[in-house]
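Hello again,

I reread your note about wanting to compare the complex against the isolated chains. To keep things tidy I'm splitting this into two emails, and this first one only covers the full assembly. Below are the input lines as submitted, including protein chains and any nucleic acid or small-molecule components. They are followed by the predicted structure of everything together. The single-chain runs will come separately.
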Amino acid sequence: MYSKKVMDHYEHPRNVGQIVGADGIGKVGNPVCGDIMKIYLKIKDNVITDVKFKTFGCGAAIATSSISTELVKGKTVEEALEITNKQVVSELDGLPPAKMHCSVLAEEAIKAAIADYYMKQGKNKEEIDKLCNLKDTVCVHSHEVGE
Amino acid sequence: MKGSNKMNIKYFDHAATTKLNENVLKEMIPYLTGEYGNPSSIYSLGRSSKKAIEDAREKVASIFNAKPQEIYFTGCGSESDNMAIKGVAYANRKKGNHIITSKIEHPAVLDTCRALEKEGFDVTYLDVDSDGIINIGELKNAITDKTILITIMFANNEIGTIEPIEEIGKIAKEHKIYFHTDAVQAVGNIAIDVNKLNIDLLSLSAHKFYGPKGIGALYVRKGVRFDKFIDGGHQERNKRAGTENVANIVGLAKALEMAYASLEENNKHLSDLRDLYISEIEEKVPYVKLNGHREKRLPGNANISFKFIEGESLLLNLDIKGICASSGSACTSGSLDPSHVLLAIGLIHEVAHGSLRITFGVENTKEDVKVLVEELIEIVSRLRDMSPLYEDFIDGTYTM
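Full-complex prediction:
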């Protein structure tokens, strides 16, 4: 079901943890879906110098968040905003179709962390939305609650 | 060699399937080799196949205190459920169109009921309490003069809870309503007398009690009207066409006989392992919850939610250690919601997502439990360290 790369990332996730005094924190997902990702960024001179993550979720969720931290580390904020879920999936050598939403969540987690950083910097909401192109962080798939 | 790595696994998913018993296999082999006759054929090769399935039928009937002509062999438990529910619904449509079931049934029952709703049947799905037991008062209140069938599972496959079958049977009999029970998880673990319990129809499946896959049975009390399911030949008293799977039928009967011959001994063994596992986890791992009734549960079933972590990641980490189990998380079910059973007993989504179902089997040992517990302690701790829910809980910003 999962590629070797995905298995490697959930067996040995990179950059697990939190950053006290982080410059940007992004939290996406919700318990109903069963996927929650939290990304912490340390940013100096517009460069992401450190990144940590925590994830509640399946193997794919852990792998996509883990690899996302590797993708953003050392990049500028603008470069990090360019990262797409397709890139995340390709870096992991693919994901099963049912797990694609985990890669979308990872992309959103990065954007949410950067949006938080911008907000702390004093940018207004319109500017942040434009720069980050944030989707609604409501679940990307539909649910029917109850019977 | 292919499959040799399977020698090192520790298997705790007996609710999903069980390993074919060697003696059952031995019993089946003649019917996969020299005894290949079609049971409907008139010559002696056919007659010996016929005898084999009728002997099997007698064996199965005697286990449940039923008559041989009340036992029908099917392809699996799901087919038995379909045959029972649709069969009774269609045949009794003139009498009424109302069916009562529960919210925690297996999809083979639930989806069958939903399909019947699309055809104009009216279905009541009873709620369960936080242990998974149906409310007898609610059942009584749901009965109308149009009710033709009550279908409630004997024991739940996910949380192991055993339903008050004797009480339900009594109520069904009083109101002259047919009572079907999906006993797929209970058969092999619990003694079942269909007359004492007033059961009219009962589904079972061989691969849950160390028999082969691809064979089930349906008990139907004499006099219960039910429509034929598969048209064609006249096999199974003209209720299910198709050349009989002789080897599998023989296997099912043998496995059933073996399971009931050692019922008490096996139950003690399984419940000892289950209770040991539950007490070790409750003692050594914080923030856990046992799902299902503590006492009225299947002897081998232990479903526990580990808070703040998700089931699939638990299973993947266990798999790395060669440990086989299952979970009620959405990711493992392939659907977008966690187990409907866990939601029906009132678990919030994240606790349902974090459930681990361990179901012990006759070959498991106390040493297996010890290894399982040790591995779980380490894996749960590591996943909690990675969990934003756990972090928020420790910070006091998240409560469950």
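For quick reference: Strands of chain A lie at 24-30, 35-44, 47-56.

B.
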